[in-house]
Amino acid sequence: MGYFEVYYAWVKVHMQSVVGNFISEVLVRTIIFCLLFSVHWNWLSKDGFIYALFGAYFLQFVAMKSYAIYVKRPILSFKIPANVNAIFGYSFFIILSGSVAVLLMDFDKVMIPSYRNISENALYSVAIFIATVIAVPSRAMLQIIYPITARLMNENKHEELNDLYKKSALNLQVFGGLVLLGIFLNIKELYKLIPNEYSGGIAVVFIIGLTKFYDVILGNNNAIILNTKYYKTVLFFGLLLVFMMIGLNMLLIPPYGIVGAAWQRYSLFLFQYHDYYLWLRK
């Protein structure tokens, strides 16, 4: 998976991210979907599923590597680049920012068992997975838009960047809104597909769904900020959000359970949205 990301980044900087996005978001997930049904119908053992899962990700890597070489064959160079300090500094920032992002996404699942029964984590996780579907169109589009945004920022084409930002926000609002309506209007039918004991997370789906939708309609704002002089501020802002997340979870989970954890995510997003708006104004 690590080498897949390397080759995926290679094709993205050459503005050829559509095939890589298909391999990552569609091909592997379709294979895993079929494998899970094979386990359900006893065509495949659980141990066999683990080996087949490895095979699916290995196929993902081979397909991505082949396409990356087809787009442009990499040329290895063992010389130390002139801007090595800037490269290491930015890489270190990316690693730290990624770690903070993981904490923001998953640490509430660690805190829930501290105040409530651990079984509520299952309800919370299922609700999160359902609501996350709203962000699928955004993930696909942003994989394509990110390198374009970086190029426009580098070339100081601010008018084209402004046009791209508006178009991305508008299109994502339409497609994300359709997915949001599809989930909200059919939520009870969706929960009939899974055991009844998981139905306690419906309120969480609505709260997280609205959070994901608001995030979607912001377009490529994150890509714009990360390509400006304010990119380092994202790390410190992320650390502030982590402390706020812990405090809000300690305040909201004991009385409200997983619904309190969902409101914590909603509150953090509103705070994040306000700061992102101010940065974009700059």
Report on this structure:
With 282 residues, this protein is mainly alpha-helical. The chain is 81% helix and 0% strand. It contains 12 helices and no strands. It is globular and about 55 Å long. The mean pLDDT is 84.
Provide tags for this entry.
single chain, 282 residues, mainly alpha
Portion in beta strands = under 5%
Uncertain residue segments: none
Give the count of helical stretches: 12
Note the run of SSEs as H and E.
Answer: HHHHHHHHHHHH
How far apart are the first and last residues' alpha carbons, in Å? 37 Å
* Overall outline: globular
- Give the tally of β-strands: 0
What is the averaged pLDDT score?
84
**Whole-number radius of gyration?**
21 Å
Helix amount, in percent?
over 70%
Structural class: mainly alpha
Sheet with most strands: none
